[in-house]
Amino acid sequence: MNVLRPSLLPALVLLTLGACGGAEEAASPPAGEDQTAQAAEAERRIPMAPTPGDALPPALLGEAPPLGGMPVNYDPSNSASMGYLALPEGEGPFPSVILIHEWNGLVDRVREVADALAAEGYVALAADLFSGQTGSNPQENMALVSAAREDPAAMIGNLDAAVAFLRERPDVTGRVGAMGWCFGGGVALSFGLDGEHHEATAIFYGQLLDDPEALAHLPHEVYGTFAREDQGPSPEQVEAFRQALDAAGVEHDLHIYDEVNHGFWLHVDQDPEVRAAPALDAWERLKAYLARTLS
After folding, report:
1. Which residues does residue 126 pair with via DSSP β-bridges, in sequence order?
2. Which pTM was predicted?
3. What is the Cα 29 distance to its own chain's centre?
4. ω before 152 within 30° of 0 (cis)?
5. Which residue has the higher pLDDT, 21 or 141?
6. Which domains does the chain have, with CATH numbers?
7. Which strands form 200-204's sheet, in the order they lie side by side?
């Protein structure tokens, strides 16, 4: 495990807050007795159904089927932290991916993407950094992020627990990636720098760093998808991130998509005519990145 540098995560989170706007997703209900009962049932598995090269997963289009995974408490230090586990059919072993939610918490859109990754052959664990809470408007979201930011080491510890949970499973290869959006993208970068060793970091329009000395601690290639019409991060900040990664000797696959704005990939259904083509390219890049880093 890398030495924790607590100064990085508060900066990443603080600078990301203004970038997580846009249409709000209805909050999912907090984990309760029904979810706990579900978790006690036999593990459900999702049929393997990789998307063809010209198709987005239905989750990004607002057309996902009913959820096929299950709630799970993966962090022994916090019984209120209820994640979501999606498992592919078959004995495996499978590589695994941790999903880090946006500023409104672990909602169904993130769970649906976890199901989509399971259909691609990954054990997918959607983390919960807000102890079961979700927000439904910017004020509630800001309050949740501010509360989490008060203890950045706990956020890293939560994700460390997610890695340990996955690596203890007999159906997992031991190779783990992390990906996140907006707030979660910045946390994914900090987790790549400060957290338990893992093999991949995918950032979707999350807050970035431009310090080669800090980024030199990244032990693996980094994926990044960004939007030209975004200021959090701006194209200039993405370019500074690219240059810092180059100076640090860190391999990367970064791309800025024209004519789209913040949030375009996770919410293609909000403007499919504009967002579908760049989102498809980003999805194909993501699949290739996960294959080469986690296989």
Report:
1. 84, 99
2. 0.90
3. 20
4. no
5. 141
6. 8-294 (3.40.50.1820)
7. 70-72, 83-86, 123-126, 94-100, 172-181, 200-204, 222-229, 252-261
